[in-house]
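Data card: per-record layout.
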Amino acid sequence: MKAIVAGHLCLDIIPGLSSVDGQQFFSLFQPGRLLQVDTASISTGGAASNTGLALSKLGIDTSIIAKVGQDPFGILVKEILEEYHQGIGDDLLIDPAGSTSYTVIINPKGVDRIFLHSPGANDHFTGDELDFGRIANTQLFHFGYPQLMRQMYIENGRNLARMFHEVRDAGVVTSLDVTFPDPSTEMGQVHWETILGNALEYVDIFCPSIEEILFMLFPSQYADLAAKGEVLAQVSAELLMNVSQKLIEFGVQVVLIKLGDQGLFLRTANSINRESNIGKLLTDPARWSNKYIWSPCYRVRVVGTTGAGDAAIAGFLAAILHGKEPEEAVNIAAAVGACNVEQADALSGVRDWDSTLGRIRSGWMKNDVSHLLNNDWDWIEESQVWRKSVG
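The structure for this 391-residue chain is written out next.
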């Protein structure tokens, strides 16, 4: 099975601040002062890198397509990708007039992170650069973070919708991931309901977090929940049913909603056509139709959450490409996400396919979310998920 993962990619630069007192860190910033720090950590980041490399580690033949500049950062990005898997960076798009996106992550101990982000060449990605003939020779096209790619959200997402339309016409299963739009910037002030409405008609698999989709489609409800406290702490089955219903009405066949430490929620269309792109990919489309599944998180010691959502999505997509049924696919997604958070970076914790399955079968314990469910949800012991009974 082959997959292409495209979209946002950047170089992450994380200065080492272990020797700096986090509580005093920002008071140390003074004009003309030299602040000594430790060795920096440098890695690739963004959905294209995180999901693409995780898919590759899970045994899927994966190509990463993203736009970088013809500059030293662009050369470094390709070198880092090649260290993970030779050839995975061969399809990077070089923008001679652009610069490579980068993020400086200021992460002192005990203080929330600050991101200094340059979008660079990501802002110039339109989708016209893609080779749709080559994409047609793969089974899956996954795209991530249009909010961080200006040409993907301006003009009501015209380029985003057109790109997915062309991929769908090429006979390939389409998948989309998003990130939280910064409300203070242009990306957070466009009309995301219109943008998603235009694009999701051509998207088979959609993988937002509950906060992201509430902000974009239900802004008043998001504001009300946020005013009461952490949104994730207020998640309920009823909320997920309502949100996922709207996404199904937009035309999505498979909705996977990320819930942070509450797990993952899967909702599928009432009937998945065997002759559709995704119907041809699934082992048994009927077994994927009209499903409501909640997978709790596996119990782990959390070291860092960078890339956890991207890793979980990679686990889910890999499970589909490996022919797994929905209950097992969501469970595998939860397992890959759990492995990810055991390490500080986005990829070191992700295991290969066989090792991931072996850990699942070892009796690995899950968190309890039964208090969030009512009597029409059943525990599926074999898959370690909750499934809603439907008529």
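Known properties of this structure: The two ends are 34 Å apart (CA to CA). Residues 2-9+46-101+119-388 form a domain with the UDP-N-acetylmuramoyl-L-alanine:D-glutamate ligase fold (CATH 3.40.1190.20).

See the next section for split statistics.
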